[in-house]
Input
Amino acid sequence: MLHMLQQSGHVYARPSVQRQVQGEEQHRQDVQRSAAAPGGPQIQRLVYDSVDNGADQELFLDNEAEARAHYAGRGVPQEVVDRLATLAADEDQFLTQDDAMTMSRNAVTGAINVITPQEAGFLVGLAGDRVGGVSAYAPDTTLGAQGILDTVSRREGLAAGSAVANRDFITGFGHHRSHTDIFVPHPGPWIHLAPPDDLATCLEHVMGPSSHASVLTDNEPSQGFGQALVTNIDAIDAAHAGDPGYVPLTYTVTEENAQEGHPVDLGIRSPVPYNTVHRPQYRVIRVSRA
Output
């Protein structure tokens, strides 16, 4: 597998990462040889814990059924369990914890209604990093968007449907979904809508445990998008402060000194760039529900 990554120039095959993977492969082989000793457990497959708790825990999973049982018991969504089980069933797959976390999490986007080549490249790039599981939501998504995504997916060696365009509001993805990353580039007036249609309320609806969102705003500070978003988040947290089990949303705001049409750091687990399409100044608001 490493040889294939080196041939392709994949980001995970950079020299420092190659050495890490080689060392981890040697460790895996040493453990397997030890386990194969008389009376030792027969370890067949290895995949790292993907739960976003900062733990550096190696998991030795004998088969797909064991992987499903492990992750299903930790509150991981079923579609994520399916992807993790597929990784665990692959005898050639060896992942670091960070890789597994990236590949196993759901990815959802909002406010992308016109699937341009740039947008398609961004969404399909995410799907490549995350073994599918990318859903784009916008009620006014243009006709033909799915065809464009499928064409780019096949060109990049992915199956059609790896990234899915949905003509629906982002809340259609579900309520309090765990292990989900949400990306909202240039939401514009969506931020200023009245509840429950405003962006802050929609984020609160979708985000469950171990979920994160990155929102890119533009035309700051004249349009006040960033300030309005965090003000609305504060209001939502205050309104639910007395609710049993409510986990508040937290956020950070970063100013991005980028020119129009240039890459901006969305703070996501992916090397896939996103280029701005509207005027500076830009803010990236990162929202989390631990």
